[in-house]
Amino acid sequence: MTARVEVEPFDPAHAAEGDLRGYYEVMLARQETDRPDEPRLSYEDVLGRLKNPFVGFGPVVYWVARLRGEVVGLAIVYFLEEESSHIGLTEVIVHPRARRKGVGTAILRAVIPELRARGRRLVETWQITKGSDGERWAESLKFLVVHTVLMQALVIPETDSALWRDDLPAGYRLRRWAGTAPDDLVASFAAARNAMHDAPVGDLAYQEPEWTAERIRAREAELRQNNIELRAVVAVHEDTGEVAGLTELELHPHRPFWGFQRDTAVLPAHRGHGLGRCIKAHLIRWLLEDRPDLDRIYTTTGAGNAHMIRVNHRLGYTTVRTMIAVNRDLFELEAELAGR
């Protein structure tokens, strides 16, 4: 007789030690199977992410699945807001030894009522390793592949620092800050961030925010609340005083030796001068002045963004994994599951 999968909401703040350990074991096993390029997760790494969820993606809710009382799977759902408030950003993770036993499907069935209750119309998932069990499972549920992304890593001790020359083109100057954009630049910085709107993102349903100074300040405050340090470097056009290019990186408290590269954008009128490489190189050098023990920086780059892939390779990044993003209409998915 097949054991019944039991799925229930999971509150990390009030979870028993055994459940937290079970959650960790699922995350670790997934990493070892689907993300072997990463350094081994520690228990403290996983607890740290639970205490400090990703910023900018709205409220997050968790579920766990058990077989015979053992945690064998989980779901992490971010309820995106503003322009993307129709999306439930959903990650389902199943321990490799419990795969192909209906665990992932049982988790989805449990998650759907909450998605519907919060007005979601689409289920989207971003970080499925290409060629993995996760890709095959998503395909079996008729999810559509909407974007392909390269995970790239800069391993600091293994990289020649000469690659991080920050030769600045004539007509520009660099500005940088930690935490809060200067008042005299915040509006121009917000406008420059909107240059991300033309980055290739395939057919993702997620929409980049329309950035304003107020939204920049709200994001900065949310990062501070989560103890995440934000670093930014911008290239300012001398003639206009406006931000022409920008790059950002986050330092998370549970991963003190890693950096997470975020947006890099150059306004169309200023492309072709090497600004993207320059500001990213300057950011690396600045980080290492303050954090000489930094081990690596991770970034994701759309597979169709050939220019940024080249820039990253010139800085010493290597491509360590290919991931896919998938999505499916919520009501179609619900009907699919009801027929199984």
Q: pLDDT under 50 segments (min length 5)?
A: none
Number of folding domains? 2
Main sheet: strand order = 1-2-3-4-5-12-6-11-10-9-8-7
CATH class of the largest domain: Alpha Beta
Distance between the termini: 18 Å
Report the CATH topology name of the largest domain.
Answer: Aminopeptidase
Do you know the CATH architecture of the largest domain?
3-Layer(aba) Sandwich
Number of E-type strands: 12
CATH superfamily of the largest domain: Gcn5-related N-acetyltransferase (GNAT)
Portion in strands = 25-35%
Structural features, described:
The chain has helices spanning 17-34, 43-51, 103-117, 133-140, 186-193, 213-225, 275-290, 306-314, 330-338, and strands at residues 5-10, 60-67, 70-79, 87-94, 122-129, 144-155, 172-178, 229-237, 243-251, 258-266, 296-302, 318-329. It has 340 residues and is an alpha+beta fold. It has two domains: 5-149 and 324-338, Aminopeptidase (3-Layer(aba) Sandwich); 160-315, Aminopeptidase (3-Layer(aba) Sandwich). The chain has a twelve-stranded mixed sheet, sandwiched between helices. Helix 7 (275-290) links the parallel strand 10 and strand 11. The radius of gyration is 21 Å and the shape is globular.
